[in-house]
Structures
1.
Amino acid sequence: MSVPRVWRRRKVLYRLEGAKCPKCGKIYFPARERCLECNTTPLEEYLFSGYGKIVTFTWVYTPPKGFKSRIPYCLAIIELEEGPRLTAQVVAVEQNDVSIGMPVEFAFRKIASEGKEGVITYGFKFRPKGYPNHAK
Ligand SMILES: [Zn+2]
């Protein structure tokens, strides 16, 4: 990802944003420039509700380099209400709490810089749906 794009994306740190095709209505996450269904460009910004459910999950005991986190942490594939899926960390849960189909909500994004090159990567965090807002 180029630097200007990374910069542009900073404004959406606390929102879950994708793209919607103005012609056929297909919704994409992450956002893209062109619709894969009907080739329309540009696409419109689309703001997700942030609600979804866990499709599958695993517990990670060895985080990737540069990704500082309490271990173990729960890494899940989450299907958003609107359909797209993403991989995200699930926070505010203990190992016995997590199950397939569990409703979750978007909490925030985290930026981690990796290595000497300072490669910036994004992490997405979800929490149980209805979890108190102040908790992380
Ligand atoms: Zn389209």
2.
Amino acid sequence: MKTMTCKQLGGACDKEFTAATFEEIAVLSKKHGKEMFDAGDQLHLNAMTAMRELMHEDGAMEKWMKEKRDLFDSL
Ligand SMILES: [Zn+2]
């Protein structure tokens, strides 16, 4: 099992997610992000806006996912 924080996954807080695979941790992070979004948490809303800006570039999503996956693998 490996642990990454919300921040390490492009979020805004130090909440930790633990999972065996990157796919699992991505799901946990997404679920948490949605909860924070629904709660109107400003820090997470800002992080999501920044992420959306970042994703305008071609291939940015793939690049971002690869970076996070490499980080997960290196833990
Ligand atoms: Zn968070």
